[in-house]
Amino acid sequence: DAGITQSPRHKVTETGTPVTLRCHQTENHRYMYWYRQDPGHGLRLIHYSYGVKDTDKGEVSDGYSVSRSKTEDFLLTLESATSSQTSVYFCAISEGAGGSYNEQFFGPGTRLTVL
Amino acid sequence: GQSLEQPSEVTAVEGAIVQINCTYQTSGFYGLSWYQQHDGGAPTFLSYNALDGLEETGRFSSFLSRSDSYGYLLLQELQMKDSASYFCAVTGGSYIPTFGRGTSLIVHP
């Protein structure tokens, strides 16, 4: 199994509070991704990173920011959490983009509840 | 942009064969992937097709027709443990995959 962990695994917070989720990998993969998964919506990309300090937006990036200061860590921040951000968040990694290097390995997920 | 369509649910009996279809629209095309996700778990990679034709991996096979913007995942000799959600994902010109909404496969004894 790819070495990818997420913390925390579960979090309950209140509307308006900031929240940071952490993704840590030991595979030295270049690409890292944050997805959210909601019933009926599958996996939707929030942000991704293609290197240290190199990030780009996905299809549902509003209300989220990311940072990657080290190859192994990718942080997802909700500056002011809202109830619509209640979801399961998955981090994923891949060696590269395009072709077979696009195979993604997923972390165990973080279940976030915003009250 | 990219979009995918796959059935929301498929049911089958143990030992049978089931096919999960996926149609996609994309600007540029590099490949179609399939992932499996059990309830409460993380998605895991099953297969990747970049060229037309059938790729076989044990009981699972994946097919691609680029001219039809269509692919499918074929599961043979179904087992109860195959009950899960299956996602297709298309990689287009952005090199970043877009996932479909997933198909819930229910295998009955």
Oligomer: heterodimer
Greatest interface: A-B, 25 and 22 residues
Structural class of chain B: mainly beta
Helical percentage of chain A: under 10%
Which value, in Å, is the CA radius of gyration of chain B?
A: 13 Å
Largest sheet of chain B: 6 strands, mixed
First and last CA, distance of chain B: 41 Å
H-E string of chain A: EEEEEEEEEEE
**Shape type of chain A:** globular
Topology as H/E string of chain B? EEEEEEEEEEE
Largest sheet of chain A: 7 strands, mixed
Can you tell me the overall shape of chain B? globular
Which residues of chain B sit in consecutive blocks of at least 5 with pLDDT less than 50?
none
Could you please describe the fold and organization of this structure?
The complex is a heterodimer of chains A (115) and B (109). With 115 residues, chain A is mainly β. Chain A contains no helices and eleven strands. In chain A, strands 2, 4, 5, 6, 9, 10 and 11 form a seven-stranded mixed beta sheet that branches. In chain A, strands 1-3-8-7 form a four-stranded antiparallel beta sheet, with no helix packed on it. Chain A starts with a strand and ends with a strand. Chain B is an all-beta fold. Chain B is built from no helices and eleven strands. Chain B has strands at residues 3-5, 9-13, 18-25, 31-37, 44-49, 53-57, 60-65, 70-75, 84-91, 97-99, 103-108. Chain B is globular, with a radius of gyration of 13 Å. The termini of chain B are far apart. The mean pLDDT of chain B is 95. Classes of the chains: A mainly beta (115), B mainly beta (109). Chains A and B meet through strand 5 and strand 10 of A and strand 4, strand 5 and strand 10 of B.
What would the keywords be for this entry?
heterodimer, A: 115 residues, mainly beta, seven-stranded mixed β-sheet, four-stranded antiparallel β-sheet, B: 109 residues, six-stranded mixed β-sheet, 11 strands, 0% helix
